[in-house]
Amino acid sequence: MSTKIRLAKYIAHSGICSRKQASRLIDEGVVTVNNRPANHIDHVDEQDTIIVNEKEIKGAADLVYFAYHKPVGIDCKLNIDDPTSLIHHLPTFTRVYPIGRLDKDSRGLLILTNDGDFCNQLIHPDFHQPKHYLVTVNKPLDDAFCKKMAAGVPVDKHITLPCEVNKIASNQFSIVLKQGLNRQIRKMAHYCGYKVIDLYRAQFSDLTLSKLNLPENQYIQINKNDISKI
């Protein structure tokens, strides 16, 4: 007899989203368990009938991991009705979703997976993995910029965590974040008086895009340990 597990974890193991996203779906009322509205305290197994957004899910999916070289103009929200959505550029043989989104105007390395537990590990504050970006702004950087950015600045009622910032050209810098606020780098730069005109994610945890030799708008299947050893 299988062991029942919490509903959000079961949904995450099915490969359709992360555990955090599964909790949101339960809150939104689009999940049922055995023909009744789901509760967060529900514990389920493969003998139960779980419906998410009118589709039945069954058991754990085979876990897969991909690296994707996202170009500018692709939206990471998985909206089938949006022609610019990432959903139109994903592997068609399995359901995967991005870990750590890039906004539509940004480009570079995106990790795609159906491993909800691994996703939680990568983005959880206790384990948050470093992400390395190369950023070009609209004018030459002043001497105080890197120090100010690295120390932390106000973004959406938060002070950003200390981070590593280095000037690499007159109007370009590198930044390593262990935080994932919405459009964080753009807002940090704006606070310091600059506008980001190009934002490129070069590395996520242990995985470096340059070593993959991956053209824009292409993906490649990778191993979990290529991304992180956590």
UniProtKB/TrEMBL annotation:
Protein name: Pseudouridine synthase
Domain RNA-binding S4: 5-62
Keywords: Isomerase, RNA-binding
InterPro entries, alphabetized: PsdUridine_s_RsuA/RluB/E/F_cat (IPR042092), PsdUridine_synth_cat_dom_sf (IPR020103), PsdUridine_synth_RsuA/RluA (IPR006145), PsdUridine_synth_RsuA/RluB/E/F (IPR000748), PsdUridine_synth_RsuA/RluB_CS (IPR018496), RsuA_PseudoU_synthase (IPR050343), S4_RNA-bd (IPR002942), S4_RNA-bd_sf (IPR036986)
Domain of life: Bacteria
Pfam entry (one): PseudoU_synth_2
SMART domains assigned to the protein according to its UniProt record, in alphabetical order: S4
Catalysed transformations (reactions): uridine(35) in tRNA(Tyr) = pseudouridine(35) in tRNA(Tyr); uridine(2604) in 23S rRNA = pseudouridine(2604) in 23S rRNA
Family: Belongs to the pseudouridine synthase RsuA family.
Entry EC number(s): 5.4.99.-
Organism: Pseudoalteromonas aliena SW19
Keyword Isomerase: yes
